[in-house]
Amino acid sequence: MQLLRLGPVGEERPAVRTGDGTTYDLLPIASEISAGADIDGAFLANDGVNRVRAALDAGELPVLDTGGLRVGPPLARPGKVICIGLNYRDHAEETGADIPGEPVVFLKTPDTVVGPYDEVLVPRRSVKTDWEVELGVVIGRTGRYLESEEDALACVGAYVLSHDVSEREFQIERGGTWDKGKNCETFNPLGPFLVPADEIADPQNLAMRLWVNGELRQNSTTRNMIFPIAEVVRYLSQFLVLRPGDVINTGTPAGVALGQPEPKPYLRAGDVVELEIEGLGRQRQILGQA
What we know:
The protein is of the alpha+beta class. It folds into 2 domains: 56 residues, no CATH class; 209 residues, Fumarylacetoacetase-like, C-terminal domain (Fumarylacetoacetate hydrolase, domain 2), CATH 3.90.850. The protein is 17% helix and 28% strand. It contains 7 helices and 18 strands. A 6-stranded mixed beta sheet has the order 5-4-16-9-10-13. Strands 7-18-17-14-15 form a 5-stranded mixed beta sheet, with no helix packed on it. It has a 3-stranded antiparallel beta sheet with strand order 1-2-3, with helices on one face. Strand 2 and strand 3 form a beta hairpin. The longest helix is centred in the first third of the chain and has 10 residues. The two termini are 36 Å apart.
């Protein structure tokens, strides 16, 4: 089951796509369980996934004509976007960073989230815009001070493909926190869809790839994380409350522009980035200029 949102920016309509490729309108269910009538934190917290399954089994959802509709980010109104840096050993090594003893944590603002095929803008005065394919974890149940991996995974509502776009000069060379290089406009394409957590057999064994202008740049698997998903969720809950609709970007493997020899192939307007994670679909963005 794939949960997605279709339509123009700000007018997306919740939908569900089944294994046979049919897309159904989710607005009737979303209107009942979410004040925003959408796929959001309230939808996940109020057993929206199982209610969709029941409605599909009962044949209660109308078919939705998707012709010509834009694919928006599959989660409406994300809460926090929490990111884990240097969570793949090969990525830490290629950038010359020490292997972290604890997860490296930074935040993205929710308004960086855009659709999986939307334009990504190279910031003004940027010369080091970079790519990062990542597994996104969507929280479906409130978690605070979690103690066990089992409790941590029980808080995960869905998984999603995420693109953690970064500006390395702003992030590393301008002083202060990483956040300046992570929160530029359009810097977190998400989607194309959410997959409920219980439908991903092993989120710690998913192939992940990214191409720039047709050239394969990243080719790895989520089993190479330093801190696995359960530990990341447990760890974060010691410092902040995880709430339904929060997104965790769990880190990127080797192959980013920052880790390449000079001249490093940073992104420019007109470049095309494509990325995918096994079972979570594929994104494609054309870079524009802010």
